[in-house]
Design a protein that fits this description.
By secondary structure, this protein is of the alpha/beta class. It is built from 17 helices and 14 strands. Helix 2 links the parallel strand 1 and strand 2.
Length: 446
């Protein structure tokens, strides 16, 4: 049966997938908007630092007020309603929960949430990909040891890219490259929350009217998020990483198979089997028609004359040689698609993307000259952006992962453009996320 048919069957039997959500911000709210329209799902509980704001978001996405006013998780289970509170520990430990959706966007806290969920026998769909970027391989191992599934979230670009890669390999195509799109010019790496809107083409007044978070949006613009998501894909799909970081070659959808070829054949790749991000802007800032900015893609190789002839006969758009073909989705729907991951882990026992090794990392890199005593403010802020690196290069450097570069004091000056290392900062070594990361380095570093 298809996933939808299985959901219908669970609904008819009165055995819905019972879900707990941690974090009811924008991403979590998008998932919650689809829950009333999805058979066989019951969100038993929502944990948020601000339960009142979570309730307002539920009203914004169209939930009836009475649906989210269960006084306890037990009542929510019994009556088919939802309990909203701030106690995430109670949520992940409740025996009535099958799947936990971690959507806080706070990587350090997310690690704690997910480890506790594993320990309580819960599957986890992880929206907070920043946490996956710095310790995803070990999170996957911890989940497996607990007998549960850990999964990237469908709707977010990494899981969608993993799906395209799986399609290609299942059909027998070698994957030459895979990735996402982005609006990129090199100077965006120095963007701050004060400059983000001019690059996006919005005024501060328009952004404020829309309730848009400048730091979050800046984490996309300055290259941090593309590096984070490329790391998740490389670690999940066994793809290599550009040795000097993402190149952001500009291309229309039609030109992706031209640029995502090896350099020896006219493309930009150091080798076949890599992650990359396609820019929607030419190097002089001109917008590219029919871009892939909001989408995902995979480039595959037709290895024989027969396969290449099939590409030609069925009008598949390839590079000039007819060897390389790109399949793409031009859009992603973010939290509106998360239910697919929830259903996949609960009904099929399959993750929609999960790290299988440590191949890539995101290293915090100085946006400007940083002085001893300053405090780092994480992705999208004023101090650092995230640069994609091969895992071994990061390990040799002792690179400071971007996901941990939050509220850390510098103990020495760092020049603009230099990647930071552990010795540049003072960090609480008793922190769970720090300890997990260091353990991952020891276990996977070789």
């Amino acid at each position: 049966m298809s996933l939808h048919q299985q959901l219908l069957k669970r609904a008819a039997e009165g055995r819905p997938i019972r879900v707990g959500v941690i974090g009811a911000g924008k991403f979590g709210s998008m998932f919650l908007a689809q829950v009333p329209r999805t058979p066989g799902l019951h969100v038993v509980g929502i944990a948020d630092l601000n339960p009142s704001a979570a309730q307002r978001n539920l009203a914004r996405v169209g939930w009836p007020a009475e649906a989210a006013q269960a006084p306890s998780l037990d009542t929510a289970l019994r009556e088919g309603r939802t309990h909203v509170g701030d106690n995430w520990q109670a949520l992940v430990s409740h025996p009535g929960i099958d799947v936990v959706v971690e959507s806080t966007g706070a990587p350090v806290a997310a690690v704690e949430h997910m480890l506790q969920a594993f320990a309580q026998g819960k599957h986890v769909v992880n929206v907070t990909v920043e946490a996956d970027a710095f310790c995803g391989p070990l999170l996957a191992r911890r989940a497996a040891e607990a007998g549960v599934l850990y999964s990237l979230a469908f709707g977010d670009q990494p899981a969608l890219i993993c799906d395209l890669v799986d399609w290609a390999r299942t059909c027998g195509f070698p994957v030459v490259a895979a990735g996402r799109g982005h609006k990129w010019l090199p100077h965006f790496a120095q963007s701050t929350p004060e400059t983000v809107w001019q690059h996006y083409g919005l005024t501060p007044e328009q952004a404020e009217r829309g309730g848009l978070n400048p730091k979050m949006f800046n984490s996309f613009l300055d290259g941090s998020k593309p590096s984070i998501e490329s790391t998740a894909v490389a670690n999940a799909c066994g793809l290599a990483v550009p040795s000097t970081g993402l190149l952001y070659p500009p291309a229309s959808v039609a030109d992706i198979p031209y640029v995502t070829r090896p350099r020896s054949e006219g493309g930009v790749l150091e080798q076949k089997g890599m992650v990359e991000v396609i820019s929607s802007l030419e190097t002089d800032g001109r917008e590219i028609p029919y871009d892939i900015r909001m989408g995902v893609w995979v480039t595959v190789e037709g290895e024989t004359d027969y396969i290449r002839h099939c590409f030609e006969e069925y009008k598949a758009h390839t590079d000039p040689s007819g060897r390389y073909f790109t399949l793409y989705k031009r859009w992603h729907l973010i939290g509106l698609e998360v239910g697919y991951s929830v259903a996949s882990v609960a009904l099929r026992g399959e993750a929609t993307g999960v790290a299988t090794g440590w191949r890539a990392d995101v290293v915090a890199t100085a946006k400007r000259t940083l002085k001893s005593g300053e405090r780092l403010d994480g992705e999208g802020g004023y101090t650092v952006w995230g640069k994609l690196q091969p895992a071994q290069a990061s390990l040799r450097l002792g690179g400071l992962p971007l996901g941990l570069a939050h509220d850390l004091p510098l103990v020495r000056d760092v020049p603009a453009g230099q990647m930071l290392c552990w010795d540049d900062v003072r960090i609480d070594t008793q922190n769970t996320a720090y300890q997990l990361r260091r353990e991952m380095e020891r276990l996977f570093g070789s």
